[in-house]
Amino acid sequence: MMASRTVQHNWNLDLCTYFLNSSLQLLWTHREDFQRIPELAINPLGDRIINAFFSEGEDQVNFRGFMRTLAHFRPIEDNEKSKDQNGPEPLNSRSNKLHFAFRLYDLDKDDKISRDELLQVLRMMVGVNISDEQLGSIADRTIQEADQDGDCAISFAEFVKVLEKVDVEQKMSIRFLH
Amino acid sequence: MFSSGYTFSFSSEPRNHQRKMGTTTLFSRDSSFASQGVVIGQCLSQGHSEEWATIRIEKGVKKPQPQMLKIPAANGIIERDETPMEKEIAGLHRMEFRFSDIFYFCRKGFEAIVEDEVTQRFSSEELVSWNLLTRTNVNFHYVSLRLTVVWVIGVMVRYCFLLPLRFTLAAIGITSMIVGTTVVGQLPNGSLKNYLSEVVHLTCSRILVRALSGTIHYHNKENKPQKGGICVANHTSPIDAIILTNDGCYAMVGQVHGGLMGVIQRATVKACPHVWFERSEIKDRHLVTKRLREHVADKNKLPILIFPEGTCINNTSVMMFKKGSFEIGGTIYPVAIKYDPQFGDAFWNSSKYNIVSYLLRIMTSWAIVCHVWYMPPMVRKEGEDAVQFANRVRSAIARQGGLTELPWDGGLKRAKVKDSFKEEQQKNYSKMLVRNGSQGNLPAGTESD
């Protein structure tokens, strides 16, 4: 894949609206195109990341959808915090970034991370290097620590609570150089 | 809507030459995206080019660019955080899983999607300012009548005047090479034959370089490869060999071809001991190494010319060197070749163009201007294995030529990346989760480091 050089100086959802009105809405990309990026192919969570671009049952993503997903990684700028309190929350807010990460774990999209889902994601990340029992106990302990309402699954609220001290903005942003 | 903060940015960072971040699409060159990549440029620049250019300039004036103390290794468009996985995830304390671990992989994945270091090397570099060749103008849009007229004149000059001249010259060069080497090949082996063969090779090489309007600047000629050595260079196009033989005689290494190339190969091998392999022999690595070793051992034989990358890369970076050439032994003479893209693009994109259309493009460019740096010889150190040695040579070449270094295999042009890289990442991550006996209620020694 060639690098995306459609570099915007300011991420902005207006951008997507603009493109929607142009012939770019005719352009599509498929999963195989993503898998051709070597650095993504060797990423243990490469498949989950690719999945994030495609909606349910869809096999292709258009430019607008692509931008929507990428917009989660826009850095949070200070002057925007007070900008638009009444409008919809921007895609790159802390809450939406966390939601994006939550969706990476939540395989069946039921808004809960169950033990099985966590186990599967862990398995993707560690490969064959850790045994099932060990992985199981890691998953159990993690859920135990985070679970507050005792349903042996992590809801989004519990997820946010666990990560309240983490600098999400710094870890989940991509800055463009100029 | 358009002026609401959106700019289509073009940034250039000076290196050996200017590079422009144009607008290309993310999506595969085979999909309709690539062909419609031009549409992006057109959509946004029709009628708005002055506007966005003004906005861009204004932004630049108002906000002085922060001084970058360290120029990034690659001319990247995003800020890359090179913190290794261990430091970022493990931090100070722990050996257990956290939900935030996923952020590292996530960000790395997205960085790869936005800017992929590897596949951009398999297509031609983009230029800052147009050099009147449509092939190097990815985002064509009509600017002015005057420029179009100039371009048309350029096309006429190149196709009607330069091309026939060059073609004739090339024909003369190839014919004289075949005839000359066949004649010299009849002579008995001896110093006269070697001398004459050198003369023939050099002369014909020079004719061929003139046929491409090549201007070559050689640097550090005192380091020129000596007999019995191995010359390695980065590979951009098939004419690399001609560029180098313009200044000295080498023993070529390669596969036997059919057609015109085969005729040339058969003729030249009579005069000078080139090493041509049959297709079947290439598969046998030991045979290849053995033959090359024999050649190198004979100090009277010309230095071998090898391109360890194995495939053509677009001259902005040096990719992984295959270790086979470095196992032969002997002295390695590294050579860095850098083409000036302003006059013509020498890169052969073999998936896009076949050899004939490639040669046609070369012959209708303005010129081939390149710099060749001969570097001091290198030998394998004690305790260094072939791979480390190859990397050392590669770094030296990249530094000299002003190219970036990538540890990726040039073979990724056609093949998929090996799973072992992914497994290595997984292994590294597992190490952070589990250490001997540190997992509370787990039996010790279940997982080794």
Automatic annotation (TrEMBL), chain A:
Which residue range or ranges hold the EF-hand domain?
93-128, 134-169
Q: Which GO terms describe its molecular function?
A: calcium ion binding
Q: Which Pfam families does this entry report, sorted A to Z?
A: EF-hand_7
Where can this protein be found? Cell membrane; Cytoplasm; Nucleus
SUPFAM superfamilies hit by this protein: EF-hand (SSF47473)
Q: Which GO terms describe its cellular component?
A: cytoplasm; nucleus; plasma membrane
Q: Set out the biological process GO terms recorded for this chain's protein.
A: protein transport
Cite the InterPro entries for this sequence: Calcineurin_B_homologous (IPR051875), EF-hand-dom_pair (IPR011992), EF_Hand_1_Ca_BS (IPR018247), EF_hand_dom (IPR002048)
Alphabetized, the UniProt keywords read: Calcium, Cell membrane, Cytoplasm, Lipoprotein, Membrane, Metal-binding, Myristate, Nucleus, Phosphoprotein, Protein transport, Repeat, Transport
- Domain of life where this protein originates: Eukaryota
Protein family per UniProt: Belongs to the calcineurin regulatory subunit family. CHP subfamily.
* Name of this protein: Calcineurin like EF-hand protein 1
- Which lineage? Eukaryota, Metazoa, Chordata, Craniata, Vertebrata
Name the gene behind this protein: CHP1
TrEMBL record, chain B:
Q: Where is the composition biased (Polar residues)?
A: 1-13
Q: What is its main location?
A: endoplasmic reticulum
Ordered alphabetically, the record's keywords are: Acyltransferase, Endoplasmic reticulum, Lipid biosynthesis, Lipid metabolism, Membrane, Phospholipid biosynthesis, Phospholipid metabolism, Transferase, Transmembrane, Transmembrane helix
Phospholipid/glycerol acyltransferase domain: residues covered: 229-340
State the compartments where it is located: Endoplasmic reticulum membrane
Task: Return one GO MF term.
Answer: O-acyltransferase activity
User: Which GO BP terms sit in this record?
Assistant: phospholipid biosynthetic process
Give the record's pathway.
Phospholipid metabolism; CDP-diacylglycerol biosynthesis; CDP-diacylglycerol from sn-glycerol 3-phosphate: step 1/3; Glycerolipid metabolism; triacylglycerol biosynthesis; Lipid metabolism
Q: How does it sit in the membrane?
A: Multi-pass membrane protein
Q: Where is this region: Disordered?
A: 1-23, 421-449
GO CC annotations, alphabetized? endoplasmic reticulum membrane
Q: Which CDD domains match?
A: LPLAT_LPCAT1-like
Identify one Pfam family in the record: Acyltransferase
Q: Which PANTHER family match?
A: GLYCEROL-3-PHOSPHATE ACYLTRANSFERASE 3 (PTHR23063:SF10), PHOSPHOLIPID ACYLTRANSFERASE (PTHR23063)
Similarity field: Belongs to the 1-acyl-sn-glycerol-3-phosphate acyltransferase family.
- Protein name stated in the entry: Glycerol-3-phosphate acyltransferase 3
Q: Species name for this entry?
A: Gallus gallus (Chicken)
Q: What is the lineage of its organism?
A: Eukaryota, Metazoa, Chordata, Craniata, Vertebrata
- Gene that encodes it: GPAT3
